[in-house]
Amino acid sequence: MKNPQLNKNGELQHLLTIDGLSANIVRHILDTAESFLNVAEREVKKVPLLRGKAIFNLFFEPSTRTRTTFEIAAKRLSADVINLNVSASSASKGETLLDTVDNLTAMQADMFVVRHGQSGAAHLIARHVAPHIHVVNAGDGRHAHPTQALLDMFTIRHFKQEFHNLRVAIVGDVLHSRVARSQIHALSILGVPEIRVIAPKTLLPAEVERMGVHVYHDMRQGLKDVDVVIMLRLQNERMRGALLPSAQEYFKYYGLTLDKLALAKPDAIVMHPGPMNRGVEIDSDVADGVQSVILSQVTFGIAVRMAVMSILAGSHAA
Amino acid sequence: MKNPQLNKNGELQHLLTIDGLSANIVRHILDTAESFLNVAEREVKKVPLLRGKAIFNLFFEPSTRTRTTFEIAAKRLSADVINLNVSASSASKGETLLDTVDNLTAMQADMFVVRHGQSGAAHLIARHVAPHIHVVNAGDGRHAHPTQALLDMFTIRHFKQEFHNLRVAIVGDVLHSRVARSQIHALSILGVPEIRVIAPKTLLPAEVERMGVHVYHDMRQGLKDVDVVIMLRLQNERMRGALLPSAQEYFKYYGLTLDKLALAKPDAIVMHPGPMNRGVEIDSDVADGVQSVILSQVTFGIAVRMAVMSILAGSHAA
Amino acid sequence: MKNPQLNKNGELQHLLTIDGLSANIVRHILDTAESFLNVAEREVKKVPLLRGKAIFNLFFEPSTRTRTTFEIAAKRLSADVINLNVSASSASKGETLLDTVDNLTAMQADMFVVRHGQSGAAHLIARHVAPHIHVVNAGDGRHAHPTQALLDMFTIRHFKQEFHNLRVAIVGDVLHSRVARSQIHALSILGVPEIRVIAPKTLLPAEVERMGVHVYHDMRQGLKDVDVVIMLRLQNERMRGALLPSAQEYFKYYGLTLDKLALAKPDAIVMHPGPMNRGVEIDSDVADGVQSVILSQVTFGIAVRMAVMSILAGSHAA
Lengths: 318, 318, 318
What we know:
homotrimer; 318 residues; 5-stranded parallel β-sheet; 4-stranded parallel β-sheet; 12 helices; globular
């Protein structure tokens, strides 16, 4: 099956999912992001790469944080950014997703950054649009969140240099997490030899081992000697639902404390995609501690999104 | 009575309604739009005509689509655009419409693009503002939606070249449609000899014939040999109300199908202002068919709005 | 106690409150604003002072008006502006205020313009951020609204030239007004010899006299021979609450009419921070009358906010 995000020359036309990307493409994105890191430190934080391009932030799910990082990245590339929160508008008027996309395309969009509650929405759009248009998946249902995974890889490489000698643990609600799914793919592609997931059975997908991960239900066992701890956000709705007894109970077993972190390697780094629930999945002592690189992830996220957008815009329809 | 949208030199100072515009002014807008069409195809989709001008999108009714087209048009003219959704803010604080306008004027607005649920709102604002400020009506109640009608005329001219030999049918909820009202005025001004409206009695204004149109209740009769079919959007609230039996019933009698369209001229074009209710007023086979120019309307809409804004900004207080 | 808004060199690092500012700093802001007034009258209303800087409008309370003035001011300084209405987003996801700020800081924010329902929110943020970041308080709870007070001082100076010979009356809901609190501080700092507050007992803070003001419960007495009348907005929720009998009753005793205004000096000016409740705290004859400078306040507000932002951006971490 042809990879829907590559053009005939094997260049990245869309960024829809990490699954199926080559290590070369992933590394190229990370290297390009590296070159954008210093733009943020200039007096004038701008490069003219996408001047006059129209980028639509097409958000069917609210997300100020992700939308803002894409908006900043696009503005630093000098693009014109149009923010559309679609839930409140055409969607409520009964227009279909593809009609909305066709209309925006007719307004000469160059790129869509799409967040949608349904898995596959970004793929659907990418299959539909004209060949000169680019689609970035900014999170679709439980499926994928590739730019998050890429910024996580950038962060790991920044602090650990190499991937081939790492032990990485992902902790929390893997079942509902598009972030975890994309991270596991990215870590595999980059050659991380040992990926662990740590969670209660109710928060793990069936047959998760088939993704090449080792499953731990005991957090202390799972953190033993890891180099990287990636905490997942626990959605509030899970806590109110039947899947978990209570936030306190969750914190006791799966919340990251200094005490549990001490089981990892002494130089292990702690990551979190944000927003954090302090006292639920992570203790403040850890979140604000010396091993936390959570805010670096945010900074790197801008550079990585600049890289993705400029690489896509530079690929040619084929 | 003096036309409130012209200055003393007969130049367009505001665009409030199509009613009362000369054919010359309408043609000038269409010609200017023609010159902007190619801006969208450049590498850098920008011209500096309105650089440093402050344009306020003042939307008292939500409309992502229309607001977005004006925002894109203004940005392509290099203006600074401020979006204000007023329902949620000062309006709820009890400030009057004109106080809101006065305040924004005091912030040195150059142009207001106004959408409001009440007919006449844009006129009220235009009468009130200082002479150097321009007002564009982006839809007021059931009254007028002039830029939509202009982009429709642009579309018709693009595909049919001339107006004086055309038969045009407008189909659907004419009663509640500011779009239909503005279209009928524009078609008359440009010399279309035969304008038909096709609708059930409950969706037609009283004495609609006085606007110079021919009324058909039978869609098959009304479509016979027409050059242009303009479908209107059926508002969801009409379907839930007492005016119509059901969406299915409406589609049966007034939905445009390939079968009914076959009664029009073979080269007839199909238009729709969007967003479409597929399966209610229009069948997908028609919406996506070879005679549909619905997406061209959207593209032309940007150029037409750029034309309107640049013409207004170029007129001088008198 | 060190003033938290000054750096070690005594320069303004943040603008959090008028309280504690020197007359020199206040005058410097007003003088700088003077130089920006003419930018608004240029063909291209822009100066490149903050080009490439990222300014975040961080609004935890909705306020289209104030947010818009800051947005316009920032755009005239050529900054990149990101609007964040936080109530609907991360706040609802349980993230703390300081986590939100840390995340935006990690996106390389240069300045935060903060409005928050809780007194002290802007101080909290200013204490927390890195030294190269600037915070402007755009209103915190009942505490302070310094840019409003500064634009009011600019307005008074514009029309009255001097402060040392003025009698100023502030009328209305002083108790709940951050505007009044900031105005009283500013008037004192600039040497206004007589500041009066006029209000019913229920709308005055306990021991308000300790702020150096003279209290009047009778509006006619309080307005006698004043040079400046500053009306406060009466929040709707006060009228619905137990504090006031009714809007009509309030207007009778504390609404500004031409009749009552006649007791002030003949050249007295009338100010209001907006949005106005016509017929509640102010009669339309006064609001639209020759002594009203209410719309000038709005215009000056842009220049004052440009001054504050450019002065802060020009101060250096110390």
